Each structure stands twice: as C-alpha cells, then as structure tokens.
Amino acid sequence: MTTQAINITKGGYCLESKTFQSLRPTATPPPPQQPLSITQFILSLLHSSAIPTTQKNYLIMPSTGQSLTYSQAINQIYSLSSSLKSYYNLNKNDVSFILCPPSLHVPIIYLSLFYLGVTISPANPLSSNSELTHQIQLSKPKIAFATSQTAHKLPSFPLGTILIDSPEFISLLTQISKRDTATNLVEVSQSDMAAILYSSGTTGRVKGVPLTHTNVIASITAFEMSSVELDPHAVSLLTLPLFHVFGFFLLINEFRWGRTLVLTERFDFEQVLKLVERYRVSDMPVSPTIILRLLKSDLTNKYDLSSLRRFSCGGAPLSKEVAEKFKRKFPQAEIMQGYGLTEAGAISRIIEPEECSQRASVGRLFGNMEAKIVDPLTGEAFGPGERGELWLRGPSIMKGYVGDEKATAETFDSEGWLKTGDLCFFDSEGFLYIVDRLKELIKYKAYQVPPVELERLLLSNPEIADAAVIPYPDEEAGQIPMACVVRKPGSSITEAQIMDSIAKQVAPYKKIRRVAFTGTIPRSPAGKILRRELISHALSGAL
Fold first, then answer.
1. pLDDT per residue over 484-533, tens digit each?
2. Domain carrying residue 529
3. Residue 450 and residue 479: Cα distance in Å, rounded?
4. Which of 485, 461, 41, 29 has the alpha carbon at shortest distance from 255?
5. 360: how many CB neighbours lie within 10 A of its CB?
6. Of the candidates 229, 252, 286, which is a domain's last residue?
7. CA dihedral sign of residues 180, 181, 182, 184
8. 229, 256, 272: which is the final residue of a domain?
C-alpha cells in the first residue's frame, strides 16, 4: 500500500495534499489525441448500448404533437450537417449563434454543428437587445439559427440567419442520406471549441464560457446513473431551457443513454402535471423552485403523478427540511440533488438510492474531479466539516472566459484550480454540501449571514409560497437581512409574525429585520434568485 493511499480518509480527503478525491470509479475518457466530436462520441456509446433504440422516441413535443425516434434523429443529424457544409460554407471553428425556443429541431442543430466542428452559442430567446449585443460581441458568430419570432432581434451575420420554422430548413433535415454523409466527414479535434455558453450573471454581467469537445466528453464519461435510472422505459420531462448548461447537458446525456425526453416550450405548472400523467413521466430534472411548487400546490391532487420516481435537482441549494416534507408527500420518488457549473459541467450528484438519505447534500464528486475547501481570505485549505470556498480541478473545466482575461485571472489560481465562489463543505463520508454564494453573504456588523439558511426557514412556513432574503443597507449594522415574501393565496401572515417566527429559530445576528411582500420572486432560467433585481427594487422603494 502506498503512502498516499494510507493518507486518504474514507471520505476521499487526502491529508497530504489537503484535497478531496472522488470516491466514484475513475472515468476513462477517449485518448485526447484521437480526433473525436461530441456527436461521434455519443453515437458510439448509443450504438454500443444494450438498449434497443431504433424505433424508440428520443424527443416528444406535446405542444405540437410531434415526436422524433432515435433512428429519425440520427438521420436528421447526418443530413443537416452535410447540408450545412455543402450549402452554407460553414467551416470548423466557425461560431453559430442560436436564438430558438425549445423544439425538436434544437437538439438536432446542436449535434449537427458539433459533428462539423462548428461552435454553438445558444442564448435565451427572451434576452434584451443589449444582452444579445453583448453576447454576440463575445462569441463573434458567422451564422445564426432563429425562428420567425426571434430573428428580428439579431443583426446580419456573414453567412446569414437560418429560420428553423421555414420549409427551407425542414428540407435540410432530410435531403442528404447517411450514406452520402460518410464521405463528407470533418475531422474534429477534441481540443476544438464545442460551445460558448453564458454564465447566469446573477452577480454581474454575463460571461462567455467556452467548452471544448474534451470538456463535454469528460463530463459525459464521468456522469453516472444508478441501475434503476437505466430503465429502458424511463421517460424524462424537461422544463428547463435548452440554452442553459443544465438543459444543454441533459439533452446530450439523455441521447447518450437512449432515453425518451418530453420537451415543453415554456414552464406552466398545471401543464407539467398533465404531461406527467399523460406520458407516465418517471424522471424530472428540476430546480428547487419546482420542488417547492409540487410540495405546496393543491393542484397535485388532481392528477395521477404515481409514475414519478426521480427528481434530479440542481441550480440552487435545496434544504433538508423541504426534501423530507417532499418525500412524505411523494413517497415513491427520490430527490437526487446534484451540483454543476457552466464553467465545469457536472461536478457531483446523488446516485444510488441509499445515498438519497443525505437529503441536504449534492452528492459525491464524479470520477474525474478533485476539490479543495479554501479559506477565501488566507488561501488555507480545510478538511472535512469545515466551511470555505469550493475550488475544483478536472478535465471538464473550461480554460478561461471568452475575451475576459481579468475575469479568468480572478477565477483560476496558478495551479489551475477553478474558484467557484460557492461556500461549501464536505462531510467525513465525502458528501458535498452547498451553503451559499460567497458574494451573497449578508454582512451584519462583524457577522456573515447566509441568505439561503433564512430562505429555508421561511419556505418551511406553510403560509409562504416563495421567499428570498437580501441585504438592506443600515447605518449602524452595515447591512440587515430583509425578507421578500410571496404569501400563499388566502394567507394574511404579517411582517411581525414572520420576523418573530424566524427570531425563535436563529442566533440574534441572523434575525430578519425587515419584510416586504411581493407577487413574485425573480429567478434565472435555472431557478437561481436574481437578488440584484430585488435589491434594486428595495432601494428604489418598489418593494
């Protein structure tokens, strides 16, 4: 036994290097020098799978009544990639801007462009003109894909804009056969850029995150599923946006495992419940916001939700209390929390059913990832049970932001560790826990108050439908915790009742000292609270 092996605890903590090592099996990606695109890689995994997929549905779009089998999807990928290469003079490393709402075409566009070595850059169709201008300046696209409803937001590009709801686009999906495509193959290096995604921008202006084929392949290789999740009859319902990292990776992973995916154009809570009943949905990737809606809504009693088995939850921390209440309401289902970043892909996840008892954890590190817990002020590395900033290193992590050397220098240390900005800790079993965003801690006198901790307590109140906690300026204390609260319909809970209730559950410095009632809590597409928006409203007197 080596010295290093002796110095690694059962939770994966190495006493020598003060790093946390993965307890999962080591993922073995393809040799980096092998020419390989994401599309080629996942097609090879799909073809080698024991699950028959030829006539199985990959995508279902209930709003249009359309569906796409794996066989049809593969044919469309080959046809579209060949058509784009032949008719649009698209070259390897060109960038394609994608401004499309969810549809059956979006995954095909992604996979076709990967096959050509073209970099995709998907954006939110609801983005403002200034946001789109900033993103286009970062990514410098040669071509765009849009719909007749979104195209007017875009400038002209050297190779134009393709409307995916036009007859011309539909013909590109079917006119070239797979046999003809084989002679037209582009050699893609794994080090080539595959995608420029955009960070959520909850603490500042959005940044362009470049991911190579290596980065994405490493994430796919490391991503594990439990044996029960590999059920060939599993059906997933995706309500998350396809331009966001969560939806982006889910599209690819569902294809890799040969699973069926039901897509929604927009999130409508009751429509989601109808779709679960209609398609016997077993799996739902969700944000904590959706978990809360399912927990607190009486509408869930109107529909048969007995098919639900797994909720993959990410985007923001979910409290142990909420998870336990959810389990009591849906005893047949498990919440499998996970953690990932636009800059790094999937980092950790609850996998096996016995791990689900760690209700507040986001799981154990995937097999290609190592981590540190670091004091953000001194740089000292901490051991199990101690809170600090989570630093990460592994093959799925980006090299740096597009066109932003300053942000890159601030995000990486000299040894290549990515500083996540998240306050976290590992327990002695190697489970990771997210406490809060470091930049969002409220500075009350000499204390730091995590908003998420107070939000968990607020959301445990049956009279509160949703809540967020923000810093409010105070002459004496510097900042005080202020709660923005959405009452449950019919509730008349008061500011004093809320403050008294929280005061009984926390240390004096964590008490909520101001409450504002609001109709909604603004959130990012992944469910993160947009605190800057709330702070702006509070300071302007709009709350």
1. 999 999 999 999 999 999 999 988 889 999 999 999 999 887 778 888 88
2. 441-540
3. 12
4. 41
5. 18
6. 229
7. positive
8. 229
